[in-house]
Amino acid sequence: MKYAKQIFIIFLVTMLGELLNFLLPLPVPAGVYGLFILLAALCSGLVKLPDVEDFGGFLLEAMPMMFIPAAVGLLEQFSEIRAIFMPLVLIVVVSTVVVMAATGKAAELVIRAKRERETK
After folding, report:
1. Mean pLDDT, residues 21-26 taken together
2. Which domain holds residue 79?
3. Does residue 41 share a domain with residue 80?
4. Entry's InterPro entries (predicted)?
5. Are residues 18 and 58 in the same domain?
6. For the chain, percent helix, then strand, then coil, each to nearest 5?
7. Are residues 12 and 62 in the same domain?
8. Deepest in the core among 35, 50, 80, 101, taking most CB within 10 A?
9. Total domain count, the chain
10. Is the pLDDT of residue 120 over 80?
11. DSSP 111
12. In contact, 55 and 7? CB cutoff 8 Å
């Protein structure tokens, strides 16, 4: 019964995200709306972490399998991708470095703000 409750909560949040995606004219995927709804529910205490933790862990463990169809699709289209392969690799490398740097700086700012708050 515990898993049924967890599945229900996660699917409910997913459906709310789909509803927001349908109602709001913003270019935001439904999954992102769902993630923000779940984050708000967890932060507010409306949903407790143990209420979604086990099934969420299962979904995280199953996530790599979700990339297999996309990878097969890329392999099937490799002859077309070959023409733009080097620019594509450059874009991936540069964007990865930029995201890592931005994430590091954001983490530093959060840690610094937390330390300053604790010293006051």
Report:
1. 94
2. 74-120
3. no
4. LrgA/CidA
5. yes
6. 90, 0, 10
7. yes
8. 35
9. 2
10. no
11. H
12. yes
Question: Which residue from 70, 51, 44 is spatially nearest to 10, judged by alpha carbons?
Answer: 51
| Burial (CB count <10 Å: 0-12, 13-18, 19+), residue 16 | middle
Rounded Cα distance between 23 and 16, Å, is 10
Cα→Cα distances 51→32, 76, 86, Å: 20, 41, 46
Predicted local distance difference test score (pLDDT) of residue 40: 96
Q: Judge contact between 52 and 10, C-beta under 8 A.
A: yes
Q: What is the pLDDT of residues 32-57, one digit of tens each?
A: 999 999 999 999 999 999 999 999 99
- Give 5's contacts (C-beta < 8 A, 6+ positions apart): 51
Question: Are 62 and 78 contained in the same domain?
Answer: no
pLDDT digits (tens, 9 = 90+) for 67-100: 999 899 988 998 889 999 999 999 999 999 999 9
Helix axes 53-66, 68-76, angle to 10 degrees: 10
How is residue 60 written in tokens?
């995280």
| 45-51-52 Cα angle (round to 5) | 105
